[in-house]
Design goal:
CATH topology of the largest domain: Peroxidase, domain 1
Structural class: mainly alpha
Strand order of the largest sheet: 3-4-5
Helix content: 40-55%
Distance between the termini: 40 Å
Shape: globular
Largest sheet: 3 strands, antiparallel
Bound molecules: 20-OXO-protoporphyrin IX containing ZN(II)
Order of helices and strands: HHHHHHHHEEHEEEHHHH
Number of helices: 13
Amino acid sequence: FAKAEEKTKGPFEPKYEDYQKVYKTIAKLLEEKDEYDDGSYGPVLVRLAWHCSGTYDKETGTGGSNGATMRFAPEGDHGANAGLKAARDFLEPVKEAYPWISYSDLWILAGVTAIQEMQGPHIPYRPGRSDRDLSFCTPDGRLPDASKEQKHLRAIFGRMGFNDQEIVALSGAHALGRCHTDRSGFDGPWTFSPTTLTNDYFKLLVEEKWQNKKWNGPKQFEDVTTKTLMMLPTDMALVKDKSFKQYVDKYARDNDAFFKDFSDVVLRLFELGVPFTQGEDARWTFKSSFDEAA
Ligand code: ZEM
């Protein structure tokens, strides 16, 4: 039947509506599977999309979200990717329902969906990623090491092509989710609302007092007031470093400015290393559940 249809209509070419359908399916699954972690798979989906993209190296053009090479052992087993199987498994039924979408387009679309469904800004999206074999896996060590500071952040994000302002805006994603001792060794959430995107990460960085947490785990910081929130050494580097701090201050004061810059930089992060055949004007903006309700 599929073959006969191809003859009359040509091969299936998914359009905006088809991707919006995939978006809606992911959004519905997010709502249904609310027993995970703090009540949402949203944060771990964002981390999956970021870890696909953040392997990009602008000098060699290797890495990035094209390929979905984290499906394979070398990359899937990198320490930085611990725990992301939960996100990949969550998306497996979506891939089965829409076999025409590549894993690499799906994982990034899931990141976009998660951000929007957690009340973040719209993130324009273009398809065009194709899945590649394990020979395209990137070497270990391309993602940031949370125990380090500003010099390391500039080296890692500079390799992707990002400047100080962009590093700070991207870090605002830590308003979402938490650290898990069995994944990274660190423990706890950054904010009191880890399933809603806000500028609270920046507000807490500047308004709270942070102290060294006394425990058996790796060096991390806790808020003096409740001792329930956390910051990584790389998070604290953003307020220690003058050039970073000016943007932390700006985003702490102005959620709209954060949302705008976050959308701009995440869109670029998610497109790193992708050989698109369509131009930037072909990007789509998907409707979220909040747009539909309005
Ligand atoms: Zn994260 N991140 N990240 N990050 N991240 C964790 C969790 C999450 C760093 C890092 O080492 C860690 C960005 C940048 C950086 C998210 C999104 C983005 C965790 C905890 C660590 C240790 C993992 C665990 O134990 O489950 C470092 C050093 C970064 C350098 C600045 C950027 C950029 C992100 C997106 C744009 C998200 C959403 C999480 C929460 C995941 C979850 O499962 O809750």
